[in-house]
User: What shape does this take?
Amino acid sequence: MLSQDREKEIKELLLSLNIDSNNLELFDVALTHPSYNFERNKEGMPDYERLEFLGDSVLRLCASNYLYNKFENYDEGNLTKIRSYIVSDEFLSKEAFRKSIDKYLNIGIHEEKDGGRQKESILACSFEAIIGAIYLSCNFDTAKKFIYKIYDDINDNFNELLTSYNSKEILQQYTQGLNKDLPEYEIINETGQAHDKTYEVIAKYHGKILGTGKGKTKKEAEKNAAYTAILKLNLIEAGKNE
Assistant: This one.
């Protein structure tokens, strides 16, 4: 059961997001970082990770459909390049902050002191979890409208995204140019407690290690591994990571 104060907070957030749902508990889960339950000895209680998994899939489908219909003259390469940014942690964290989602997060005291409310990975994960909650508590069309509204708001900036890049995308384009196979990412080490892990990942191709990277999320570690790889392959200049 949510407290009256918490119910009021979530209703306030949903109103600002223009989402009509009575399943406040689900959105509370979408706003709950694992550290919050860990510090309250409630491990096993739901946090945003499962909803993030679902929301990520909904987001990617909607982003692909939006771009496919909007840019009829763009080839797959350009569509992929734009999509890689508009589903990225960088983009999503900015949207989460712009919508004040950081104010409604449930996070642990130690994570709070460590600046958790401003961390790109936490904001992005929670934003994807909210999309998952919208999909479950409302329907796909509501989630699609919510996502499309975000993209409509950046309408004038889409072409600018073609001048930027994503490390994983560049590595993928490189390996596909060799024989159309994709690079693989493998977690080789995990350190820290369950609510505060650091992942170490290798990027490899046909069994050969191309680069390694660390991050607080698997996505961040993969991105950093890809960046190391494309640097070693001289595909970019140092200092141009996304």
In short: The chain has two domains: 4-162, 167-232. The chain has eleven helices and three strands.
